[in-house]
Amino acid sequence: MSVGIGEIDAQHREFIRLIAGMPEKMIAGYDTKSAVELVAFLEGYADRHFTTEENYMSVYSYPALGAHKVLHDKFRAEIKLMREKAEKEEAARAILDINRRIYNWFVEHIKVTDKKLGEFLKGKLR
After folding, report:
1. Taking Cα atoms as reference points, which of 87, 84, 106, 115 lies closest to residue 20?
2. What's the pLDDT score for residue 91?
3. How many Cβ atoms from other residues are within 10 Å of residue 43's Cβ?
4. Least enclosed by CB within 10 Å: which of 4, 19, 97, 123?
């Protein structure tokens, strides 16, 4: 799922590693407070990652910046709602659902939207 831009790819790998570790942490006995903290951490990481991508898009005048940022903003809002859900529900059930939703969204976003960004940036960074 590489897009060919080192910093972005490294962040993608780290985010996927974090997402993949969520169910294991729940099995290890995370309580609701710990689960909410984990989702909040992912929320912050996603925001920092999206900001990195948006900075690249801005600096290199990516023509699809607006549409790409809209997707990021929708996910920012969605992950906030997921965190709020984790605060209100039984932690393990909420985290497993959140994990599935975050993973599916992120993988699809990388495969489609970020691949296009990567191709554009590779042309600019040569």
Report:
1. 106
2. 63
3. 18
4. 123
pTM of the model: 0.87
AA letter at 69? K
Residue pair 110/3 in contact by the 8 Å Cβ criterion = yes
Taking only the tens place, the pLDDT of each residue in 84-94 is 887 877 666 67
Alpha-carbon span 26 to 5, nearest angstrom: 33
Residues 6+ apart with CB under 8 A from 95: 22, 23, 25, 26, 30, 35, 38, 39, 86
Of the candidates 18, 10, 17, 3, the one whose C-alpha atom is nearest the C-alpha of residue 113 is 3
DSSP secondary structure of 64-101: THHHHHHHHHHHHHHHHHHHHHHHHS-HHHHHHHHHHH
**Tokens standing for residue 42:** 């992912």
What's the Rg (C-alpha) of the chain? 15
